[in-house]
Design brief:
Number of strands: 9
Oligomer: single chain
Strand content: 15-25%
Strand order of the largest sheet: 3-4-8-7-6-5
Order of helices and strands: HHHEEHHHHEEEEEEHHE
Shape: globular
Distance between the termini: 28 Å
Structural class: alpha+beta
Helix content: 40-55%
């Protein structure tokens, strides 16, 4: 609370009376308004606001943007992942071996676990040749959060049902939500070196293109990636389920 922060030695710098009152007003207002403190004049900070939303959803299940409570259940252990989603577990085992796959998965944050499950589930459903792929890393957003996954050892013939679209590959026009985006990166000889894969809420290669434009605009304004809970809900709506992941919403 504000009193604890005030008494903390790290904050024990000399205050002039006006400075003390300004600090008191700021901290109590932020505690009172919470997420919407950033909507007040003079407090605009889209990146900090989106980070606040991420932390709230992952730690408490509450989404302050839409005033909804989510319950997010997913396998926390690799053994649980094997039982709930054999495709994702099998892919990780093929990359790392059983023990290292377990250590890799269990050391991921809940956010990154959900990004991994979402993306691999969507790629498998799209027919991407995961058996040939080499996991290189997560695909990192500029704000430091995982956006998707980076896979090597794939060519354009390994992308299953994805269509060439806008300089990359996308889900076909029959897929409106929870769509796959594959962005190629080339080596110095002009050959594809690897792909960055992620899940979009809406597919620009469909009649949902205007909604995708709003999605991109929102991410640009907030300086954030699409939240994996939102992506999981889009996949859940399209596929009926995302193996091992359950997201329920309570208004």
């Amino acid at each position: 609370d504000w009193f604890t922060q005030w008494m903390d030695v790290r904050n024990s710098i000399p205050f002039y009376p006006n400075q003390l009152m300004d600090w008191f007003d700021a901290i109590t207002n932020q505690e009172f308004f919470g997420y919407h403190w950033y909507d007040l004049p003079g407090n605009l900070d889209p990146i900090a606001q989106e980070e606040y939303r991420h932390i709230s959803i992952i730690t408490t299940g509450f989404d302050p943007e839409f005033c909804r409570n989510y319950r997010v259940d997913m396998p926390e252990t690799f053994e649980g992942l094997e039982e709930a989603n054999s495709e994702v577990a099998g892919f990780l085992e093929s990359q790392f071996g059983n023990e290292q796959a377990a250590a890799f998965y269990e050391n991921l944050s809940g956010y990154d676990k959900l990004v991994m499950i979402n993306t691999l589930t969507a790629l498998s459903q799209a027919g991407v040749e995961l058996g040939k792929a080499e996991f290189l890393d997560f695909y990192w957003h500029e704000n430091g959060s995982a956006f998707g996954i980076r896979l090597g050892n794939l060519g354009t013939g390994d992308l299953g049902d994805l269509d060439e679209f806008g300089g990359g590959w996308r889900s076909g026009p029959d897929v409106l939500t929870g769509s796959v985006e594959a962005t190629p990166h080339y080596d110095e000889d002009g050959n594809i070196d690897y792909f960055d894969f992620d899940v979009d809420l809406y597919n620009p290669n469909s009649i949902a293109a205007p909604l995708h434009a709003f999605e991109v605009l929102g991410n640009t304004i907030t300086g954030s990636a699409t939240h994996p809970v939102d992506a999981a809900r889009a996949l859940q709506n399209r596929l009926g389920s995302v193996g091992g992941v359950s997201i329920t919403c309570h208004h």
